[in-house]
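Working notes for the structural subgroup meeting. M.R. asked for a predicted model of this chain before we commit to crystallization trials. I am recording the input and output together here so anyone reviewing the notebook later can reproduce the run.

Input as submitted:
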Amino acid sequence: MTDPGFLLTITFVLYFLGIAAVLWLPEKMTAPALAGFGGLGSLLLLVTGGDALFSSSTFHSTLWAIPGIGDLTISIDYLSAFFLVVTALVALPAVIFAAARIADEQWCHPGYRAALYLGLLIAIPLVVISADVFLFLVAWEVMSILIYLLVNSGHSERPGYLMLAIGEAGTLAVLVAFLLLAGTSGTLSFAELKVSGLSLGPGLRWVIFILSFAGFGVKGGLIPMNFWIPRAYTAAPNAFIPLIAGATLNMGLYGIIRVNTDLLPITQAGPGITMLIIGSVTALIGILYATIEDDFKTLLAHSSIENAGIITAALGASVLFLATGHRVAAAMALLAALYHLLNHSIFKTLLFMGAGVVEEAAGTRSLDRMGGLLKRMPWTGFFMLVGVLSIAAMPPFNGFVSEWLTLESLLRSTELTSLGIKIAFVVAGVALALTAGLAVTCFVRAFAMGFLGMPRSEAARSTHETRSSALRPMALLALACLAFGVLPTYVIPAVDRVVAPLTGASATRALVPPFFEDSAPVSELPQKFASEFHDLGAQLGHSTMPGRGLAVIHRGGEKNPVVFAMSTSYMFVTLILLLGVCAGVVWLVVVRRRKTVRRPRWDGGVRHLMPEMTYTATGFAQPVRVVFEAILRPQIVDRRETIAKYFRVAIQQERKEIHLVDRLVLHPLAVTAQWIASSLARMHHGQINAYAGYALLVLVLFLVIASTT
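Returned structure, recorded in C-alpha cell form:
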C-alpha cells in the first residue's frame, strides 16, 4: 500500500501548481494547464481513494496545532475513501470538459475562473478528509465561497447571492450542532466526538440531528432548503456546472452520513423516519417539477433534487433498520444509498455536459425550440441517450441497479413490528415508485423533444457536432454508466467495505452469493437456496470470470421469504444477442432478397408539416400538469386586447409555475418579515412628544416594579 499522506501531498501540490500556472501563463495556455494539472491531480486522487478503500487500515495525520483550538488533523477511513473516489471519478472528466469550454466566454478572464475551479478541486477532498470540526468548517466555507464565485462568474449574480446566503444559514446550523456535540467532550476531534456521543441524552441527540440534517440538507438539496438549486444550477457557466452538480451536492449528503451514522450512535427511530419521509417527498417534488420544466438545465437541476431525495430516503431506511436491530437490512439500505450517490454523480455530470454542449450549439435551453438534434449531433445525442437511460433507471445501466436495491431494501420493512414505522415505509415506497414512473416520463420527454423529430427553430436546424475535446469526457462517463450497471457484483463488495463498519453487518453476504468461489465465506443465503440457483446456471462463467458471481439475489426474512434476483450482466449479453439475431433476420429476410426502393414517406395527408404542428415538450408534459394540478397550482393571468373597450381583439393566457416551496415556505416568511418591518417602520414616523412619553412611561413602570420588589 502506498502512503496516503504522500499521495495526498502530491495531489494538492499538483492542484496548487495548476493554480499558479493558469494565473501566470499566457491566456492561450489556460486550457492546457487546467487539463494537465487538474487531470493529473484528479487521477492521483482516484488512486489515493481507491488505495485507501481497499486497505486494511485507516490513515490519520496531524497537520499542526493551533493554540486555543487544538490539533488540525486529517483522516481517511472507508467513508472518506469512498467519497474521494466518487469526487475523483467526476472531477477527472469534468476538468477536461471545463478546459475545453472555459475560453468560450471572453468577457471574463479564463485564468481567474480556472484558478477558482482548481481551488474547488482542493476544497472538496479537504472537506472529506478533515478529522476535526475546525478544519472541516474552514474547508466547508472555502468550498462554499468558491462555488459562489464560480456561479457568479456567469451572467447572473442573484442566484449566487441566494445560494451563498442560504448556505451560510445552513453552516450556522451545522456549527451549533458541532458545538453541542463537542460540549460534553471538550474537544473538536471527530474521534473524541464519536466517543462522547455515546453519553448524550436522547433530547440532545434530537437537537443535534435536526440542526445537522437541516444544515447539511441545504447543500444536499433536501426540501424545503433546496429552492436555490434550480436558480444557481441554471445560472452557472456550462464549463463548471458538471463538477458543481456532480461533486459538491454530495458534500451535504456526506455531512449527514458522517454526523448521524458515524459520530452519533443510532438508538432512536425518529431520525430515520424524518430522513425517510423528507427524502421521499423531496424525490417526488423534484421529479414532478423536472417533468413539466422546459429549460433543459433547470430540468436537470430539479432532477438532482429528486436523486438527493432517493439517497436520503435509503439512508433513512438504513437508520430505521439499525434502530430496530435489523443490521443486514440496514446494510442493504445504506449500500443502496451510497451506490445511488455514486451513480447519480456519474450520469448527472454527463447530462450537464451534454446540456451545456447543446445550449452552445443550438443557442437555447428550451426543449420546445429544439428537436432533430440527433442527426446534427450524433455523438452528443448518443452519449446523452446513455445518460438519459441511466437516470431513468433503465437496465442494464447503473441507475437501474441502485434504484432496484433501494426498493428491495424498503421491502424488508415487513420484518418490523412497529405499525407507525411500517406506515412510514409504505408512504416512502409509494412516493419512490411514483418518482420512478415520473422519471421515465421526464427523460423520455427530454430526449425525444430535444433530439428526435424535426427542428422547431432555425437555431436547431443550424447546429453541428461539438469538438472532440468535449466529447471525450462524455464518452468516459457514458462508459462508466454502463460499467457500473453491468458489473454490480464487483461494485457491491467495494461499497460494502464502507457499509460494514457503519452498520456492523455485510450487505455482500445478503446480495451477492459466492457462486464463483470454491471455498466461499459464510453467506446470508441458505446453502440449499444457493445450490438451487447453481442448478439454474448461476455458476455460468465460473471458469472465465473472477469474483463472486454475476447475479444479485435478495431473499427476504421469515415474514417475507420472497426471492428477488437480478443480473444486468446476463441482461446485457442477452440484449446484445437479441439485437444481433434481429439484425441478422432483417438482413436475411428483407435486405438480402429485396432491392432497396426509395419512396416518399407517408405523411398522413399533410404535405408540408410545419414545426409548429409537431408535438412539443410542453404538450408532452400537459397530462402531468393536469393530474398534479392540486400540487402545482399555477398562477394564470388573462390578458385581453380590446378596441374602444368593447371589441375584443385577442386573449392571451400566461401560465406561471410557482414552486411549492416558494408558495408554502418562502412567500409566508417574506410576508411575515415585511409585516414586522412595516410595523417597526411606523414607530419611526411619530411625534417627538410621543417618543418622550414612551420613555417616561417605561421609566415609571420600572420604578414601580423596583419599589414592589
